[in-house]
Backbone:
């Protein structure tokens, strides 16, 4: 349902509630009761109008934003958000997050790079919160050197809470042909990650792609990869696993790695 329609319905319901509560005594009760009723409950009237006003102010303030999202006009939404953030310096987290997602959707990697520069100068904390989106953009644009520096720096932070940043760090080394480093990082992820998709991907890489670079650990790698495959197959059959992956695509990291995840899924269930 359109948000505009919901706002109209909400306004209508509030007005009807007000009418029933405050005007009912006028028609069905005597004047003395009406006077006493208003004396005791007068404060509900300003509360009602304040609530009604807040709802409508919030809606009107975000009218353009809501309209572009409802119409799925991502180009117009991007232009609006860039004006708000770059020109007017309105760096609210909500708008910054939405712009990063929209730029990623449009594959506007130069726009994301500009956003990252602005945030480094003004809101560096936002970069940490939105790190997976910036990492995904660097990966999709093929800027593996920058991805490597970005993801490894964040992965080393004690306050890093993004498991996918550790994956991007390992993946960037692989794409830079630093296979030994990548193999060790994926091996660590396969052992320690609590994210099942990351564990599956890491197991796939160390077993099928990077095993020659884990000399002396072949038996341990084989056992670890097999145990992760068994762990997944005990919880899911292939259809259930595919459904799980589909649900997880709401996360940008899973969505941008669809092809590799498909290869990993085939490996698990064959």
Residues:
């Amino acid at each position: 349902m359109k948000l505009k329609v919901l706002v109209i319905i909400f306004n209508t319901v509030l007005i009807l509630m007000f009418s029933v509560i405050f005007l009912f005594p006028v028609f069905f009760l005597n004047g003395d009761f009406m006077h006493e009723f208003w004396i005791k409950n007068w404060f509900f009237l300003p509360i009602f109008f304040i609530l009604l006003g807040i709802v409508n102010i919030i809606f009107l303030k975000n009218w353009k934003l809501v309209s572009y999202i409802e119409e799925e006009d991502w180009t117009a939404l991007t232009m609006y958000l860039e004006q708000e953030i770059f020109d007017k310096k309105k760096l609210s987290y909500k708008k910054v997050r939405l712009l990063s997602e929209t730029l990623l959707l449009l594959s506007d990697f130069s726009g994301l790079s500009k956003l990252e520069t602005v945030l480094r100068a003004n809101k560096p904390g936002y970069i940490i919160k939105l790190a997976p989106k910036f990492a995904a953009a660097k990966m999709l644009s093929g800027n593996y050197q920058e991805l490597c520096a970005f993801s490894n720096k964040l992965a080393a932070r004690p306050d890093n809470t993004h498991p996918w940043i550790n994956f991007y760090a390992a993946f960037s080394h692989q794409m830079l042909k630093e296979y030994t480093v990548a193999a060790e990082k994926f091996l660590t992820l396969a052992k320690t990650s609590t994210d099942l998709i990351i564990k599956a991907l890491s197991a796939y890489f160390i077993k099928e792609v990077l095993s020659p670079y884990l000399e002396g650990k072949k038996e341990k790698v084989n056992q670890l990869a097999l145990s992760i495959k068994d762990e997944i197959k005990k919880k899911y059959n292939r259809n259930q696993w595919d459904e799980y992956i589909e649900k997880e695509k709401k996360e940008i990291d899973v969505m941008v790695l669809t092809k590799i995840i498909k290869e990993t899924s085939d490996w698990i269930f064959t």
